[in-house]
Amino acid sequence: PRAIYLKDYQVPTYQIEQTELRFDLSSEATRVRARLCVQRDDTTSVSEPLVLDGEALTLISVAIDGRPLDAAEYDADEHSLTLHAVPDRFWLETEVEIAPASNTALEGLYQSNGMFCTQCEPEGFRRITFYPDRPDVMSRFTTTVIGDRTTLPVLLSNGNPIDQCVIDDARHYVTWEDPHPKPAYLFALVAGNLEKREDHFTTASGRDVLLQLWVETQNLNKTEFAMNALKRSMRWDEERFGREYDLDRFMIVAVDDFNMGAMENKGLNIFNSSAVLANPETTVDMMFQRIEGIVAHEYFHNWSGNRVTCRDWFQLALKEGFTVFRDQLFSSDVNSAPVKRIEDVALLRTAQFAEDSGPTAHPVRPDHFIEITNFYTLTVYEKGAEVVRMLRNLLGWEQFRQGSDLYFDRFDGQAVRVEDFIDCMAEVSGQDLTRFMLWYAQAGTPEVTATSAYDADARCLTLSLSQRTPPTPGQTEKEPLQIPVAMGLVGADGKDLPLIMNGESLGTSTVLVMTDAEHRFVFENLDAAPVPSLLRGFSAPVKLHHALSDEQLAFLMRHDSDGFNRWDAGQQLALSELERLMAAWHADEPLVVGDRLIDTMRALITEPADDKAVLAEMLRLPSEAFIAEQQAEVHIDAIHHARRAATRALGEALYDEFAALYDRERSDAPYSPHFEQIAQRSLKNVALGYLCATGRPDALALAQAQFDDNANMTDVRAALTQLAHADDTALGEPAVRAFGERWAHDPLVMDQWFATQVSRPQPDALERVRFLMGHEAFSIKNPNRVRALIGTFVNQNLVNFHREDGQGYRLLADVVIELNRLNPDIAARMVLPLTRFRRLDPVRRAAMRGELERIRGESLSRSVFEVVEKALA
Ligand code: HT7
Ligand code: ZN
């Protein structure tokens, strides 16, 4: 397979003014007729052929302005249809046949539980009909869907229904018209036996919008939360970003088989059922919050992505980075802001940093790819959002909002580049953002080193900051980036000190801007040495090296005015204790937890807390993945045993305190997914985790009682996890069985059942994965099942996935080989953990490489090929 380069971009030679589609739906032989009004670009020479993309299509006929073409007038190969001589403007009519039922890749038109649905981003439309399948070709779509009246009573597409009729006893049709020109990747069609929840929204300018959420009948009782989340999102986008919805109806459809979370098709969002369906009996708190974030994300795309779209797929972060930033801001406005930041940063610092330091590292705007679906990554989405957040940090909210308004006004209805967005920000602020653009071009996580020296005579503190970005594949030399470092100085009384630099007062918190490799900042008028609190709110996606003593960390953990940095100081403190335990494990010495961590935790539990959600986060030890990310050579067993020993020791030492906390946070109030209640449950269940880590029967009895109480899925699942992860299986086995029998009818709950079992740390986990792969509720064709069973094992059970005998790697490779044939996109995502072998010990490294080479021996899809080649390079 050949790579495609950003530098080779060329403007499209033909535009499609109008697109009229007619689908005659059938599982094995759907007929798609396309009438395209084609217009030659003024600058294009007459001899330029019209080349249309097409994959896995059976061509039935081609006609120009009603005249059928004979075979000599066009070329059709596996990927395209080429028309040699065409008029300047004409109607092209094609008819193709496709087979949705055998489409296991879930791109283009496919079937899920009998329902027809589409996924066209990024290049799925070419699996539906011949078309210039690129985002800079925007067209007005009219779509007629013909289907069986009994099995497909609901026929949906983008825009508004303009015609519908019964054809005969068996069939009916509906015609939809979308008034907004759009690229093909935003096209959608759904046909099935669905029911709807309906609601209305009145926009800021007083227009009524019909809201519909379409699901299978048995899921109607899981639609209320998403509908309310949608209405919250619509209002928020008006108030925060001045963006109003632009169609008369907005529809969401829930689909069981879906490669990602959801898709922002114009006026007809299609959602993975796991990203939209929720109720208290079946759904945990974390999922409620995830659903709220995804509903918002897809809705926000209506402006950042649909009204203003990408010129080409290299610009993906233009819409994704901005939209993730917008959904993060929304979630932080409607929930606990520090906890939202903590969660987002935790994901970034474990998973995205790992990507940035591995063989698949790439810039936020890649400059080449073999398969674009491989670039829907944490780097494009999460780091892309951090880059937009840095702009907000550099410009301040007011100017950032002005820049956003200018961008939407200036480019409405256009397909644009990252530069266009940045130019708007530069224009409204007067800032030079030339160096800032490097964030889009340079891969790798910059490392910032901070040192400070206090001069008692001069009463000043000199803060030295330096930056360096390590080499990444294909990019050995890196330039300094523009980095906003939000900071403050904390005085001995725990209060922020006034910041004075060059005689100028900067308040108590400021943003230092790095543009060079090294900087020195001098703060004046300080009576004693303060503790610098740096990178507040995680103001830039960097690794900060700031050598603070355990004492200073404990001080910041209690006093920093920045909630995020208080949490982060606690994580660093815990990390330094875990490092001592890991050293002891290597030296075969007893793992004894020091008093400082225990005392700090005790203080946290017993002192009054103003934000319970933050407190719950502060009580959690750093995850195994985060600890691994800190190590030059990763020792999975040491990490696992140190963390387990620390959890148990804290549980033992603070048993009474955790028991009191558990009692204090218990509540009989009816369930609500409101963030204050979520915080309370989170705190209670953290306490339960520490209590159960001791293995004491009274702690497990608490878990059993909570399980039996069956109050809501959050509490049931937390209790089940404790029971199922206990060394003694006496309570766990019956609980797992009861849960499995109770929820056998609900695939989304069975996913939780799979995940709970395969994250069990005991050595029988791998055998359990193999066993569960044979369970009737599992199907390798469904991405949610694969993520729940295999993904959880691989990503959340590190000690068992990385078994020294290599069986974990073998299992994953077997799965990848099968998926490579069925669903290349998912296969290419699942193979990623096998590519992260460089920092492992030689035995595991060799075992992983061996499995990658076994995969390479197969006939590979382009997606898997690209990842495996990078890893073995
Ligand atoms: N913009 C959407 C991307 C997406 C996607 C990409 C590749 C394969 C399947 C997919 N489904 C959805 C989702 C989003 O970012 O909102
Ligand atoms: Zn998106």
Automatic annotation (TrEMBL):
<dbReference type="InterPro" id="IPR014782">
    <property type="entry name" value="Peptidase_M1_dom"/>
</dbReference>
<dbReference type="InterPro" id="IPR042097">
    <property type="entry name" value="Aminopeptidase_N-like_N_sf"/>
</dbReference>
<feature type="domain" description="Peptidase M1 membrane alanine aminopeptidase">
    <location>
        <begin position="225"/>
        <end position="437"/>
    </location>
</feature>
<feature type="domain" description="Peptidase M1 alanyl aminopeptidase Ig-like fold">
    <location>
        <begin position="444"/>
        <end position="546"/>
    </location>
</feature>
<dbReference type="InterPro" id="IPR001930">
    <property type="entry name" value="Peptidase_M1"/>
</dbReference>
<feature type="domain" description="Peptidase M1 alanyl aminopeptidase C-terminal">
    <location>
        <begin position="550"/>
        <end position="873"/>
    </location>
</feature>
<dbReference type="Pfam" id="PF17900">
    <property type="entry name" value="Peptidase_M1_N"/>
</dbReference>
<dbReference type="InterPro" id="IPR027268">
    <property type="entry name" value="Peptidase_M4/M1_CTD_sf"/>
</dbReference>
<keyword id="KW-0862">Zinc</keyword>
<protein>
    <recommendedName>
        <fullName>Aminopeptidase N</fullName>
        <ecNumber>3.4.11.2</ecNumber>
    </recommendedName>
</protein>
<dbReference type="InterPro" id="IPR024601">
    <property type="entry name" value="Peptidase_M1_pepN_C"/>
</dbReference>
<feature type="domain" description="Aminopeptidase N-like N-terminal">
    <location>
        <begin position="45"/>
        <end position="186"/>
    </location>
</feature>
<keyword id="KW-0378">Hydrolase</keyword>
<dbReference type="Pfam" id="PF11940">
    <property type="entry name" value="DUF3458"/>
</dbReference>
<dbReference type="GO" id="GO:0008270">
    <property type="term" value="F:zinc ion binding"/>
</dbReference>
<keyword id="KW-0482">Metalloprotease</keyword>
<dbReference type="InterPro" id="IPR045357">
    <property type="entry name" value="Aminopeptidase_N-like_N"/>
</dbReference>
<dbReference type="InterPro" id="IPR038438">
    <property type="entry name" value="PepN_Ig-like_sf"/>
</dbReference>
<keyword id="KW-0031">Aminopeptidase</keyword>
<comment type="similarity">
    <text>Belongs to the peptidase M1 family.</text>
</comment>
<dbReference type="InterPro" id="IPR035414">
    <property type="entry name" value="Peptidase_M1_pepN_Ig-like"/>
</dbReference>
<dbReference type="Pfam" id="PF17432">
    <property type="entry name" value="DUF3458_C"/>
</dbReference>
<dbReference type="Pfam" id="PF01433">
    <property type="entry name" value="Peptidase_M1"/>
</dbReference>
<dbReference type="InterPro" id="IPR012779">
    <property type="entry name" value="Peptidase_M1_pepN"/>
</dbReference>
<dbReference type="InterPro" id="IPR037144">
    <property type="entry name" value="Peptidase_M1_pepN_C_sf"/>
</dbReference>
<keyword id="KW-0479">Metal-binding</keyword>
<comment type="function">
    <text>Aminopeptidase N is involved in the degradation of intracellular peptides generated by protein breakdown during normal growth as well as in response to nutrient starvation.</text>
</comment>
<dbReference type="GO" id="GO:0016285">
    <property type="term" value="F:alanyl aminopeptidase activity"/>
</dbReference>
<dbReference type="GO" id="GO:0006508">
    <property type="term" value="P:proteolysis"/>
</dbReference>
<dbReference type="GO" id="GO:0008237">
    <property type="term" value="F:metallopeptidase activity"/>
</dbReference>
<keyword id="KW-0645">Protease</keyword>
